[in-house]
């Protein structure tokens, strides 16, 4: 049977992805390319659910796409595109929105959290219907329903409820209008690592970090990068030991080390037994610099060659459009358009 489809999206909401994005999500995108028929999307429609600057958004969409290509997403083996270049995303979202209960959407905990943070006057209807757009992002790339047809979505814990809604909407559509969508399956990628802030090791590394010293950007230059790792908060004691509760700082650094060097915390403990934090951090800094340098350099090269990047993204949009427009053709017909 055909390779399973996989869909995943990421928002272009920062000037660079960070090491948490990479080790927690994006590296798995690269790994899935050969086993899956992969559709990867820079979801710029989602980025305007909050107030934004147009020039900055355009820039960030390009930088995001360039970074994904630089880390190894390959337009020959998967389909990488920018969401706004495939208008069917918005069209299907309208149809699915008309199948979504107001109360049902209102139960989304992410909306409740985000809107509470922003206040009523800054909260848009777009933010409210964001999960419906996400459902449409996924379901547009449904394979034809039938034996063995699979649609997979790698999800973090925070997106589980949205994926559940996606399944509900697919089922509802199928029931009302005929079998159209394969119900997507979510899974947490086995190799995904949760990375925490270098300065506050009990909170996750995030672009909304309280200090830039806590976050490692993929585009960071080697000098500052080394400094950041050397200045990462470690814990009392000197032992390189994996202990989430007692040693969150060292444990986080060990996770980064293990993920990038293809080793295990046990092997790292054995290697640094008796040698303290200093040498461990120095080696880790070298490993991080080695891992990120090619990504940074390829990103810069892609951004310098605008025509080449445009061409690569146009190719992705064209392939995504072929699938999305086929799905919408069926949807439009079944809905009565
Ligand atoms: P941020 O928290 O910086 O806003 P996003 O929420 O945009 O990042 O996350 C994009 C993707 O990266 C998601 O799949 C998310 O699970 C993953 N991710 C973000 N931060 C981390 C982290 N610190 N460790 C592991 N994965 C992360
Ligand atoms: Na593939």
UniProtKB/TrEMBL annotation:
L-tryptophan binds at residue 137. CDD domains: TrpRS_core. The keyword Protein biosynthesis applies. It is an enzyme of class 6 (ligase). A motif ('KMSKS' region) lies at residues 204-208. Coiled coil: none annotated. PANTHER family: TRYPTOPHAN--TRNA LIGASE, MITOCHONDRIAL (PTHR43766:SF1). Catalyzes the attachment of tryptophan to tRNA(Trp). This is Tryptophan--tRNA ligase. The gene is trpS.
